[in-house]
Write a structure and sequence with these properties.
five-stranded mixed beta sheet
């Protein structure tokens, strides 16, 4: 740090181009003290005596139907073969469930788009509205 002199004689006055770090250090020390004081206060919780109740826990299980489509056009609903013509009738009882199960379509990449469109329209006709596709994560190119 440079200090100016008190003598006004023949010396030239130069501009001080240094940053005064003392106020910055003071602010940082104050913040450090504040965090050291408040951090232990954040970990304490209020002690409350909760009432006892005898109730069954709510089971909110995600329900889904697995619909697999092979490249040959065969349909499997939860590992049981289903004909395309019978798909709507097979899925209709599941549409009455609350909440409705999600239909997860696992189609081979060689499956024809026409077959996928028919499966989707028959699924919607059965009353099921939740439909998703199962895919494999993309692997990065070498």
């Amino acid at each position: 740090m440079s200090f100016g002199s008190f003598d006004r004689g023949g010396s030239q006055s130069h501009t001080n181009a240094e940053i005064n770090m003392v106020p910055l250090i003071d602010v940082m020390l104050v913040l450090l003290v504040i965090f050291l004081i408040t951090a232990p206060l954040l970990t304490h919780s209020i002690s409350v005596q909760l009432p006892q109740a005898s109730a069954q826990p709510v089971e909110n299980e995600k329900k889904y139907l697995d619909l697999a489509i092979t490249p040959e056009g065969l349909l499997y609903l939860d590992n049981e073969e289903v004909a395309l013509d019978d798909l709507t009738a097979t899925l209709q009882p599941f549409a009455q469930d609350t909440p409705q199960p999600e239909v997860r379509i696992r189609a081979d990449q060689e499956t024809r788009y026409e077959l996928l469109a028919q499966v989707m329209s028959r699924t919607k006709a059965s009353g099921l509205t939740r439909l998703g596709f199962v895919t494999r994560p993309d692997t990065p190119a070498p």
